[in-house]
Amino acid sequence: MTTLWDTTGSAVVKELAAQRRTGGAVLSGVALTLVVVADESRVAEAEEAATHAAESHPCRILVVVRRQLEAPAPRLDAEVLIGGRLGPGEAVVMRMYGRLGLHAESVVLPLLAADAPVVAWWHAAPPEKLATDALAVFAHRRITDSSIAEDPLAALRTRAADYAPGDTDLAWTRSTAWRSTLASTLDSVSGRRGEPVAVQGARVEGDAANPTAQLLAGWISSRCGCPVSVEDGGRKPNSSGVDSVALQLDQDEEVRIQADRRGGAVISQPNRPDATVALVDRPLGDLLSEELRRLDRDEPYSEALEAATGVSGLAGRSPEREHVWFDPADNGSSSRKRAAAKTADA
Amino acid sequence: MIPNPLRDPRDRRLPRVPEPCALVVFGITGDLARKKLLPAVYDLANRGLLPTNFALLGFARRDWEDQDFAELSREAARQHARTPWREEVWERLAGNVHFVQGSFDDDDAFDQLAATLQDLEGSHGIGGNAAFYLSIPPAMFPTVLKQMERTGMADSTPDRWRRVVVEKPFGEDLPSSRELNELVDSVFSAQDVFRIDHYLGKETVQNLLALRFANSLFEPIWNAQNVDSVQITMAEDVGIGGRAQFYEKTGAARDVLQNHLLQLLALTAMEEPVEFSAEEIRTEKLKVLRAVSLPDDLETFAIRGQYEQGWLAGQRANGYQQEEGVDPESTTETFAAVRLGVETRRWAGVPFYLRTGKRLPRRVTEIALVFKRAPHLPFADTDTEELGNNQLVVRVQPDEGVTLKFGSKVPGSVMEVRDVSMDFLYGEQFTEASPEAYERLLLDVLLGDATLFPRNAEVEASWAVIDPLEEFWAGTTPHPYRAGEWGPRAADEMLAAENRRWRRP
Q1: The CATH number fitting domain B200-497, selected from 3.30.750.24, 3.30.360.10, 3.20.20.10, 3.40.50.300
Q2: Which residue among A31, A184, A280 sits closest to B52, beta carbon to beta carbon?
Q3: For residue A179, is pLDDT > 70?
């Protein structure tokens, strides 16, 4: 590991190349570059998750931390690691001070692995319009996390308004286990009946202010064509925000999945005894790893997002974004943090 | 599969989960069940890949209660599981674990097994679907299969499926394997029989198909015009362990060559399947296996060896004949190397060198395509002295990945060309991330996906290759080699006879 204080982008590129040469056994296969945009307070968390995800998806990790936008002199500090704290691959952690934070791409672009896809992940409140962050413009896939915004539902609506194919949100990823359990429960019902099942209505109970619960409801509604609402349940659910889901089926049947608060869920269905399945709260690294499995557009997400927020026409939008210059200083708001808080309010 | 409104082909986040079913394991107390099967079941549960209604049923002779069995399963799963241990996952699974005690010739025990299975249909909602895993010596197959036939456990109906999983060895020669196949097929229908070759469950083996058929780069040179020879190696550094009784009768050729190596050969040499489906892939593999030819001069091109005392990895290793339970005069081979041909337009004239052995310097399995040299080199002879053949190596284990070996200029003022290798380590190199072969194969059995399982015709075609070799070797003494060497000298001479040499993996 080498730390470069008050350095330049070219020096970082040189140092990375030098470490590759002297590092001995370096990971030579790189499937993608993962650009992580993190708040200083969340860097450690983001690093841990990125390291975990890199275990199954060999990638170059570039962590961008923007600090003190109002600092008078721009400055770049960088840590270059190969086979160190951030796993066996190549990683660069960059802290950008002052106005450099608005031009992070000038440091990041030369560090991208050649011709490999770029995934950008905001482990921070993302900009209201992703296109105002140049890092989002060249990323093939953009991962946000509405759940860390101050008002997650507003953040979800912002994501829908700003959506372009290739966007995804970890609030959506958190719903996978629920979706998978629901789908296999319906398999089980149709297997017993020997004929397809129709879903006529559904009820999601949990935390109505949780974007995952909203996306899950949106997904059921988009798949089954029936309105689905999230009702506040009495108990405090886990990070997915869902406590139980009940599906009303044709032939006057109902199936119900209830989280058991011990990393599992109980499935109740007609003519079958209750069954318990694993339904765990997955760590951030697992979620990120799932996102890196596929880099193409995620249609089921855009449909769920449409249904959850009422914004339509998401799938038809262009996947290309054009950079929009945005200077938080112009808005009379001097700190980036406040700009981010505004995002959540929008 | 019946259409499900929540399933969307574009939604590839949702895993494939089998229908409600039971897994019945015969010989649950055995080594394989404890080290591979039970951990694989736990790992599948932990990854959320088991159906909502699932039951695991163990059958063995021991006098156990459900709790004893659950305790043993827990220990086994905990010790060998790949994924992190989560007590709550196991607890949920343990509620679905049952044990039936009995011996294989005991009618009552099987009646009880059938009754237990029937009970589970209701109490666990498994819907009558069941997979039977025969983790037992092949000698007991007939007894168990007849019992299953008698109790009607083996019948698939439109409402339910019943599948059987058979482990290698699939017989010991062509007639015995045919007999076994007929027996299994008479009880289960052919599409319900899953023969496990755990090598085919490995990520790299499946990647070989992607490498060949998803790229435009390799297929045009994947033929006799460009390939000089193919070397397939499966080396183990261990000895026979405690399996003397089994190994004495089997030997390296039957144990490894007949199944793993010939399957790897088939995947390497096969034509492009019409589509990526079990039926089409098996069809293409079968064509290759039927086209395999043996050399005329077996004396030179079919070598077997047996390890003697030696040093391996800094430790003294006993010779095979000194291993516990082995006849001191034993002529069982622990090493086999053979030159095969594939009589098709694509491969005519290209030798396929296969070798396998125990107590070789390291554990490695790889497929190496050695390319022909460039027809003309515009350099001075001295410039290219160190240039070898280009090679494409698929590393099956360990360090799963692909290596490309080609010539490159040595930096400096003179023109010198030497071999360099370019490595691709697949992301799944980190073993904890890559599913165990058994995990994948077990899931495929429960899903009914037979892509990675050889069909009985393939097994028979493989025996048709091995039988003449065994016949030739019968009554001969294997060439000795020291433990810790890359096999007997005769194996090196086999390649030297054609001006080639083994790649050191």
Answers
A1: 3.30.360.10
A2: A184
A3: yes
